[in-house]
Design a protein that fits this description.
By secondary structure, the chain is an alpha+beta fold. It contains seven helices and five strands; from the N terminus they run αααββααβαβαβ. It has a five-stranded mixed β-sheet with strand order 1-2-5-3-4. The longest helix is centred in the middle third of the chain and has 96 residues. The radius of gyration is 47 Å and the shape is rod-shaped. The two termini are 48 Å apart.
Length: 343
């Protein structure tokens, strides 16, 4: 009768695992949000860096075209000054010709000399007109070149405006993508937490009568003595029975979890701090803990659990639950832990 009362008192409700579960969920969500923020910042910085390079290249081209336009304007001004000089010379020549024609009309004696001078001035006038015509042609060509340069500058400015608009749109899309990704990740975390709670609830029902199986935070813990002989990685008959129950629970849970949730069951092997002799199959606790985790994974696979949903990890003696140097602490630290998480 006293033993029955003791067992009933041991089965009191423990709220601490639920608190630890909620706290770990909150930490996981924060880690996801920080990862998304870093990813968005990285994508944004890379996008802005590429746009800055294009903007710098366009600005360099505009500067070169502006310098070329200034040079052409200077050349145009020189040609126009030359044209003004030629026109002034032409006007002076025409005035001289008119004066000589008047002298020719006034005196016959001077007619012969004046005629010769008039012919000379006519030739000079024709030459000046040809030079003036060539100058006008050069001015027209320079005006066409200036017009073409202005069109190129306008096209570059338009391309620059389009690039800046695309930058703004890209930044808006990145911000929206970050928000949607945060929402999606938060939903995934909530869904996985719900399935984890269901999974642990089923395991509690299946393994409720075992004293060496318990829940610690977000993990289901099997003491090594339940599954393995001392110093071995071969699962005993009782442990195989328990693993068969566990495999059935995982298979049932897999039917309910949506395929887009990339979940895995992580199997962690832990040992105590006592070093191995080195004369046996395993040289140290690293190898023993890894081998035990692998044995559990292989047995679950043999009982129908998909291999891509399982992960085996060995931690040796370096993740103890109790750091005291006692037999009770060492017994507690020799364990296999199961954790349902995302890949």
């Amino acid at each position: 009768m006293a033993l029955a009362r003791g067992r009933r008192s041991d089965r009191h409700i423990d709220y601490w695992p639920g608190f630890v579960d909620a706290l770990s969920t909150l930490l996981l969500a924060i880690m996801f949000l920080l990862s998304v923020f870093v990813l968005a910042q990285f994508l944004l910085s890379r996008e802005i860096s590429g746009k800055d390079e294009v903007l710098n290249r366009l600005n360099s081209q505009i500067n070169e075209l502006t310098q070329l336009l200034a040079l052409e304007k200077g050349n145009t001004q020189d040609v126009q000054d030359q044209l003004v000089n030629l026109q002034a010379s032409l006007s002076a020549t025409e005035a001289e010709k008119s004066r000589l024609e008047q002298l020719l009309a006034q005196g016959a004696g001077a007619g012969s000399a004046a005629s010769a001078r008039a012919d000379q001035l006519t030739g000079e006038l024709d030459s000046e007109r040809q030079i003036s015509q060539r100058a006008l042609s050069q001015v027209e060509l320079l005006n066409q070149q200036i017009s073409a340069l202005r069109k190129q500058i306008a096209a570059l400015e338009q391309a620059l405006d389009v690039s800046e608009q695309r930058d703004r749109e890209s930044n808006t899309k990145i911000a929206d993508l970050g928000r949607r990704l945060n929402v999606a990740l938060a939903q995934r975390v909530q869904e996985l937490n719900r399935y984890r709670s269901d999974f642990f609830g089923r395991l509690r029902e299946i393994l409720a009568d075992r004293e060496n199986i318990r829940i610690v935070g977000d993990r289901f813990v099997f003491q090594s003595e339940v599954l393995f002989p001392t110093g071995s990685d071969q699962i005993n008959e009782a442990g195989q029975v328990e693993m068969k129950k566990l495999a059935d629970a995982i298979i049932e849970l897999q039917k309910e979890i949506p395929p887009e949730i990339n979940w895995v069951l992580r199997v962690d092997g832990h040992t105590d701090t006592k070093p191995l002799s080195g004369a046996g199959r395993y040289r140290d606790n690293w190898e023993l803990s890894s081998a035990r985790a692998t044995s559990v994974v292989k047995l679950l696979i043999a009982n129908g659990v998909p291999a891509n949903r399982l992960v085996a990890a060995g931690f040796g003696e370096f993740q103890p639950l109790d750091e005291a140097d006692t037999d009770e602490a060492r017994t507690k630290n020799r364990r296999i832990e199961l954790k349902l998480t995302e890949r």
